[in-house]
Amino acid sequence: MFVTRKLQALKATQLSQGYKAFSALAGLDAKTPKEKLTFGSTFSDHLLEVDWDKTSGWGAPLIRPYGPLAIDPAASSLHYALQVNLTSYRHGMTKLCSAGTMNLFVYWINEQGEKELVTAPLTRGDILPGVTRQSILELARGWGEFKVTETTITMPSIVKAEQEGRLLEVFGSGTAAVISPVKLINYNGKDVNVPLDAPDGKSGQLTKRIWNEMTDIQVKCMLFEEIIRYERSNHSNSMAAWNTRGLL
């Protein structure tokens, strides 16, 4: 993790000369159990810090205990301007769009009585053309079990669906977290509750299914690549052996 901070002046050339700069670390905290790790809020006991400025570029790296920072890595916003549109609904704006790093999906029973997975269209110009988004759309359409639609979603339509018992699931998608279930939306001072009915009670059944399918594909792709590399390596050795025997 790179963090910009005013550090004691050190020449960048010290790095190439094998210079090592570090400070003594205090006793390390107990390791957090894997099941309690929270994305974006659990950090190591120390950080790799590198100072940078536009004149001299990167400085020498330092490893220091995790400590006070001008902007903590866990900060939810770097500037109010990035979050100002979160209150746009107060001005009559009701269309839902993506967060900065995720796409939003709504799974509901539409007003025609059909189960439907909906996400905002790319044609609007304000939607992230995410790879995970596209993968989910292709996966869901391949199942052919429910309608999959790219269309504008509004908060009033979600509120109405929840009131009529038609809201089934809401989740975000992105590269890092893959799938993030939504359990509650606060809109105009009122809570819109989203069902969480997977066996673990942490997501909806479709959200869980997509998560499993997506992560399985990732693992299988990595295994496939390993198998291909192994086969190529053994194939090369076999070809060389055959050639020495005059078989090629």
UniProtKB/TrEMBL annotation:
It comes from the Eukaryota. GO terms for molecular function: branched-chain-amino-acid transaminase activity. GO terms for biological process: amino acid biosynthetic process; branched-chain amino acid biosynthetic process. Its cofactor is pyridoxal 5'-phosphate. Keywords: Amino-acid biosynthesis, Aminotransferase, Branched-chain amino acid biosynthesis, Pyridoxal phosphate, Transferase. Pfam families: Aminotran_4. Belongs to the class-IV pyridoxal-phosphate-dependent aminotransferase family. This is Branched-chain-amino-acid aminotransferase.
